[in-house]
Amino acid sequence: MSTPATRASTRTLLVIDVQNDFIPGGRLAVPGGDEIVPLINRLGRSFRHVVLAQDWHPAGHASFASSHPGKQPFDVIQLPYGEQKLWPDHCIQGSDGAALHPALDLPHAQLIIRKGCNSAIDSYSAFMEADRQTPTGLAGYLKERGIDTVHVVGLALDFCVMYTALDARAAGFNAYVVLDACRGIDTEGSLDAAIRRMQEAGVTLIQSDALNGPGPGQ
Length: 218
Fold this sequence. Notes:
By secondary structure, the protein is α/β, with parallel strands linked by helices. Helices cover 21% and strands 21% of the residues. The protein contains five helices and eight strands; from the N terminus they run H-E-H-E-E-E-E-H-E-H-E-H-E. It has helices at residues 4-9, 37-44, 138-144, 157-170, 190-200, and strands spanning 11-16, 50-55, 76-79, 82-85, 111-115, 149-155, 174-183, 204-206. The strands form two sheets. It has a six-stranded parallel sheet with strand order 5-2-1-6-7-8, with helices on both faces. It has a two-stranded antiparallel sheet with strand order 3-4. Helix 4 (157-170) packs parallel to helix 5 (190-200). It is globular, with a radius of gyration of 17 Å.
């Protein structure tokens, strides 16, 4: 029978893309993105294992509308790996916009996964790049540490959070998304679609109060 200490050692808080460019005032702002930072900090204190994901694009990335003459942000094009939604230039390596939000306070985080570093391939998920062939190494890192459960928070719920949760399930992890510790972009119904996809894949959607006391993942 597992004890609370044992369960704490087999779960991680996975914090997705809480970066300046996704905060109001940033280049790809998620409405209310700054509102979740205090809650993420509070949740982080109850997790022994914390991993951060960070968009880290080179200038001229293939997912930027500016890289495709005549295209606008949120247009969809075909790249060699399939459909790609185009975005404003954001989270360019080394820029202030790519930096983690200054109020994010998770000093015990053990790993930062930087994604989207390949100029030709986008990467929403912290586990797998958009070509669906190139892993980031996160699954192996977690499994080698005995982690079997991830709790996903951050930005944006309908893109990077969703794809991370889906890939966590595909890699064999129990996956929880803490809805009140996320915010979405919600373009063309993307938020409702994300909720449906996660539910269909077996991702458990919870509120943060479920993590107080003997709730899921405790």
